[in-house]
Amino acid sequence: MDIGKQQRVIMVEPIDLTIDEELEALARDVIRPGEARRPAGAEESASSDPLE
Amino acid sequence: MNEDLRLLELRYGPHEGGPELERLKVRVNRSQYRREVIDEQIGELIEERRKLKAEEDRVHQLLELVATEEADRIRSRHSEGWSPEPVTGYRVWHLDDDGRVVGATGQIWSYPVMEAACEQARRPYDDLPHTDRMCSSFGYGCGVYASKSAAHLDPGRAPRILGVVHLAGKVVEHESGYRAARARVVAVLAEDGVSRLITSDPDLIEVVFEQPAAALATHGELTASDRRESYWVILNELERRVKVWT
User: Fold this and answer.
1) What is the secondary structure of B45-75 as a DSSP string?
2) Which B residues, 138 through 167, put their C-beta within 8 Å of a C-beta on chain A?
């Protein structure tokens, strides 16, 4: 097959969906419901953690 | 000091030991002192080692950062691209005397997936397809070849299979085609002059590559002799379908 002169390399690396799932799981751990909307500088109280 | 002598000293007052006893006491004291000095030096060495390890970790992180920047510069200098989506190419296969699917170089495709291999490959691993003229004596080098456009293919005579392939891994772009590390057939148009089979069904594509004649006989549509289009029509249909599929 005549494909002509070489031009460049393209690296095709499909994104692994499991990474996204891991990131989502991590985000769930780090940013718990309610915390994301807490004003900056607001003190964390014992009752602010909805998982408790 | 010996416990018995210590007790007797408490009992009878200080006792002046003989020269042998004093000499041995001095030896014990000297040994204890040397041991304490060694322990201190060990402590200093452990601390020094900890600091060196921490410094080494910081330098290693910096090295990784600088190496990444250097790699980016090299990629940029060679206009290297990156894509999360496979590159689409077109191929044509024919059937050999045993009815097997073969590529232009005689490579047998018994499965609709192919991985590049090269006799010149370095061990234990290499960066295939070669782009350093390692195997440039063969065509444009190693890799799974595909055309950028179906119109560039030379379809030859039936029986033949025209296919759309998704290329992945290292894909070397040429003026009118590609050489890839991996290729997967995602759509085919197979014909033997009597019937024709067009499909993007992965299971059916597998059957086409495993048993092409049987696949055409079982799943192909008969093409009346007065309705056999030229291969240009077939290619256009294939391209049109690919656009719909993708």
Assistant:
1) HHHHHHHHHHHHHHHHHHHHHHHHHHHHHHH
2) 139-141, 145-147, 153, 167
Pick among A2, A8, A10, A20 to test the B interface (most B CBs inside 10 A): A10
ipTM tops the 0.90 cut: no
CA angle centred on B183, ends B182 and B189, rounded to 5°: 170
Q: Are B188 and B154 in contact (CB under 8 A)?
A: no
Look over chain B and give the mean of its residue pLDDT values, rounded to a whole number.
Answer: 88
> Nearest CA to B171 among A12, A1, A44, A40?
A12
pTM value is: 0.70
Question: Closest by alpha carbon to B144, among B170, B110, B114, B108?
Answer: B114
Confirm if B188 and B237 have CB atoms less than 8 A apart.
Answer: no
